[in-house]
Amino acid sequence: MRIVAGELRGRRLNPPTNIEVRPTTDFAKESLFNILRNRIDFEECTALDIFCGTGGISFEFVSRGIKQVTSIDINPKCIAFINKTKEQFKVDNLFALRQDAFVYLGRSKMKFDVVFADPPYDMPNFDIVPDLVLKSFLKPNGIFVLEHSKEHSYTDNPFFVEQRHYGKVNFTFFQNKEEE
Prior knowledge:
The chain has helices at 26-37, 56-63, 76-88, 101-107, 129-136; strands spanning 46-50, 68-73, 94-98, 112-117, 138-148, 160-166, 169-175. By secondary structure, the protein is of the alpha/beta class.
């Protein structure tokens, strides 16, 4: 895995082989961030990366100059890897928290400009993630991106904007169009 653009472009993320994750492909990441670049000003935004795994998306946000990223994952090996990598890259605006994403989504009061979620595709309660995020975690006009398999569709969600697919990776974009 590599960081595809920005200040950290070309830097490699080399997670230990004993971490069971499904990293977003470089091609899909590049496509995702090309879309986001046209919708947000990274330097003015905060981001939440839930089910962050080894932090590939979090580091892409950082590389593009985002104000702050909060990364959530329950796996202690993932959080340790992210913390080690952020020290190596001298990153001070990424905060990795070892916590169950559903506990975090149930307790946190923070709101973000951008939320990215990449839950395990076979997670039993996968389909409740959009509602949990959209109800509480987006600032007005905030964007939520959900990575998922083709078996899921969210076109009926009132916050649905569009769905894109890149090989086996699907991104659904939602936007909170509420007024402040």
